[in-house]
Design a protein that fits this description.
alpha/beta, Immunoglobulin-like, Alkaline Phosphatase, subunit A, 14% strand, disordered N terminus
Length: 724
């Protein structure tokens, strides 16, 4: 009996641990990694929020930042580092995964994404390689951080909590420079003189704006002081010579036309890296002097390059699915030619913009050119500069670049020469002298959209249903334990594709709740209890299961939800993205595009029909075109997809057919007030203005039990209507 049982367990082991073995191979470490004595650098990230390269070391004479200036003098100052988004959560989503949010479905602000099965937090690979990984303490990844991402993620997380001698990767995020800190405080005394502030050409030069800028710089100085204390701790611990230090911001200035935007004011960030002498050959094997003190590097660096660069420095093989490329370490790639950025829903305001930048030119493609830049965002409207801009615009006192933000529409394409126009206020897209540059950048953008599988053209309500049908979170299956017969060890596996496993052992000296990342079969002693949980990004965690010696194959019998086909797999079987790209080629063609929009009203995909309706709404200007479109869109009011009904109803209201359109908007807003279809509907109600008045009862009802963003737009709509 023992022979067949041995064979059965071996086959079972190979089957259920294949995923774990693959993970170990992927991370570049052998099964017995504890026997490997490879020395690895410590890595410390000091990150901050909402600042551009407004530091003394970047030549800003108004800034007071002695600590970061000193760090730059000891290391490398990168002059061309860029975020792929102008706001924190999408930016951090790309940093932690090494992938574009527009590829993995995490581009909408606070969207609770469900990335494809292969996507991991890069820290899992570092943990598997033996690193002690801590985060203090912001995550904001557009998904709940899996329990396997960090050894510790809290306000107390620190490299000092590790086992002595263990290499660490530590992130300490400083929040004092966040956008919200730029709101005025009673009795404040500014350190920076407002009279010396440099006012960008897109802001009105008023005392309010100057005070706001001075306050922003005050916060940068406070952040610098905090960064200095962290670096002092590293010195006190005698670790400075063993630790590679990074300093960066998650996106640009937390001020209007900075944060949330993908102009350079929103995505150009400071990046300073100090590499101790002992690690310079590791950082750049072919040219270690390039990372010596007082170095400056103008190589294009993207946020999605951070993850692969960390793995490259740590000696961990970069997984093939990662879209970023290493710019340091043994796996350093060739320098980039371009960086890419995206803007999608920012809080309660929808827009869809993409950007491509080389070292000189910036190309911007506006996919919703019918929208003004100056949309209402409740949180952003609390900023004094924003209030000042809106006040002066209402009084008709803004001109030139200062008026640009409030133009009723946007051009389909924008092109800027950032060498001669660093503030990006002179659009060269229509200048014949730059035709070849425009065509080159347009082509690069189109190729990137296709190659990365950009899903931004799928309306969020449609995408939400694809990624999480019915709004129901899937649950990860329970881990399964399998004792190995040939050796006294236990393997752990999980049936859910893409799952990671965390474990702890009672009686081993571990602190209760000190979960570790499972990477290989392990030994336990009699009397010890092995605990395990499984997690997958975008899923609920599994229930906890336990095992002790003497148990047979156990686990895997919990209440996991049946795994459905992932949205990316569903999408790959369709031509939806191709059809969406095709219909958006009609942008900017005006009346010539109308036949194409009419044809697309019958498309099999709701997302395409949505853009067809939107296209007719914004391109039918002549009476005969409107008359024909009203007939067609009246039928679309009964479309099966809420987004199509909303778009059609919005157009009908704008065209004077409120009798048909308004009930659809009011009904849809109330019915879907807890999801993004409801947000689409209340946005439409706000935009039709006084025409929405008959629906006031339904609008008021949207305040109760609604999505937070729906509430924000509803409050703004009620204020707009009830103040008249």
């Amino acid at each position: 009996m023992t022979g067949p049982k041995n064979n059965m367990n071996r086959r079972r082991f190979l089957q259920i641990t294949s995923g774990s073995a693959a993970a170990m191979m992927l991370s570049g470490i052998p099964l017995k990694a504890e026997e490997t004595k490879t020395q690895r650098p410590n890595i410390l990230w000091v990150s901050c929020e909402d600042i551009s390269p407004d530091l003394g070391c970047y030549g800003d004479s108004y800034a007071v930042t002695p600590n970061i200036d000193k760090l730059a003098a000891q290391g490398v100052r990168y002059t061309n580092a860029y975020s792929h988004a102008g706001v924190c959560a999408p930016a951090r989503s790309g940093i932690i995964t090494g992938m574009y949010p527009t590829t993995i479905g995490t581009q909408f602000m606070r969207c609770k994404g469900v990335p494809p099965v292969q996507v991991k937090c890069f820290t899992e690979y570092l943990r598997a390689a033996g690193y002690y990984c801590t985060n203090n303490s912001k995550t904001d990844y557009q998904f709940d951080p899996p329990m396997t991402a960090w050894d510790e993620s809290s306000r107390k997380a620190h490299w000092r909590n590790r086992t002595k001698g263990r290499p660490f990767f530590t992130v300490i995020n400083l929040t004092v420079s966040h956008e919200s800190r730029n709101w005025p405080k009673k009795g404040e005394k500014l350190l920076h003189d407002p009279a010396r502030a440099v006012v960008p050409p897109y802001y009105p030069d008023t005392p309010v704006v100057r005070q706001n800028l001075a306050r922003y710089y005050d916060n940068v100085t406070k952040m610098d002081e905090q960064a200095g204390k962290i670096l002092q701790q590293l010195d006190e611990d005698g670790l400075a010579d063993d630790t590679i230090v990074w300093f960066w911001s998650d996106h640009g200035r937390g001020l209007p036309r900075g944060k949330r935007w993908i102009y350079d004011s929103g995505i150009h960030v400071p990046l300073v890296i100090r590499v101790p002498a002992k690690w310079r050959k590791l950082a750049l094997p072919g040219n270690p002097d390039a990372v010596k003190p007082e170095s400056v590097d103008d190589e294009l660096v993207a946020f999605i390059d951070f993850a692969p660069t960390m793995l490259s420095l740590a000696g961990v093989k970069i997984p093939s699915h990662i879209q970023g490329q290493a710019f340091l370490g043994s796996q350093k790639a060739k320098p980039r030619e371009y960086i890419f950025a995206a803007r999608d829903r920012m809080d309660e305001a929808y827009d869809l913009i993409r950007a491509v930048r080389d070292k000189r030119f910036k190309y911007i493609r506006n996919y919703m050119p019918h929208l003004t830049r100056g949309q209402d965002i409740e949180y952003m409207n609390r900023m004094p500069t924003m209030q000042e801009m809106r006040r002066l615009n209402a009084e008709g006192k803004l001109k030139g670049p200062k008026k640009q933000y409030f133009e009723p529409t946007k051009p389909v394409e924008e092109l800027y020469d950032t060498h001669t126009d660093p503030h990006e206020v002179r659009n060269l897209a229509g200048d014949p002298k730059y035709k070849k540059v425009l065509e080159r950048m347009r082509k690069v953008h189109a190729e990137w959209v296709q190659e990365t599988g950009d899903i931004g053209l799928i309306p969020e309500p449609e995408f939400d249903e694809m990624k999480r049908p019915g709004g129901v979170f899937q649950k990860t299956a329970e881990p399964q334990f399998t004792p190995l017969i040939d050796e006294p060890a236990v393997s752990i596996s999980c049936p859910t594709p893409g799952a990671s496993i965390a474990y702890r052992i009672d009686g081993s000296g571990n602190k209760k709740g000190g979960w570790k990342l499972y990477t290989r079969p392990m030994r336990i002693k009699f009397g010890q209890v092995l605990h395990a949980k499984a997690c997958r990004i975008g899923f609920r965690d599994s229930d906890e299961v336990r095992f002790k010696l003497g148990d047979s194959v156990t686990g895997g019998e919990g209440s996991a939800t049946p795994t459905i086909s992932h949205w990316s797999e569903q999408l790959d079987k369709t031509d939806l993205l191709q059809r969406l790209r095709k219909i958006k080629k009609l942008d900017g063609k005006g009346r010539k595009a109308i036949p194409g929009y009419f044809k697309a009203l019958n498309d099999k995909y709701a997302s395409v029909r949505y853009w067809a309706v939107t296209g007719l709404h914004n391109n039918c200007k002549r009476a005969e075109d409107v008359k024909r479109a009203k007939v067609a869109l009246k039928k679309m009011l009964k479309d099966e997809a809420p987004v199509v009904r909303i778009a059609a109803a919005h157009a009908m209201c704008d065209w004077g057919a409120e009798k048909e359109g308004l009930p659809v908007l009011a009904e849809t807003a109330f019915e879907h007030k807890a999801n993004k279809a409801g947000l689409y509907a209340v946005i439409a109600l706000k935009r039709i203005g006084e025409k929405a008045r008959p629906a006031l009862p339904q609008i008021r009802a949207c305040l109760k039990n609604s999505d937070g963003y729906v509430q924000r737009v509803t409050r703004a709509t009620l204020k707009q209507l009830e103040n008249k």
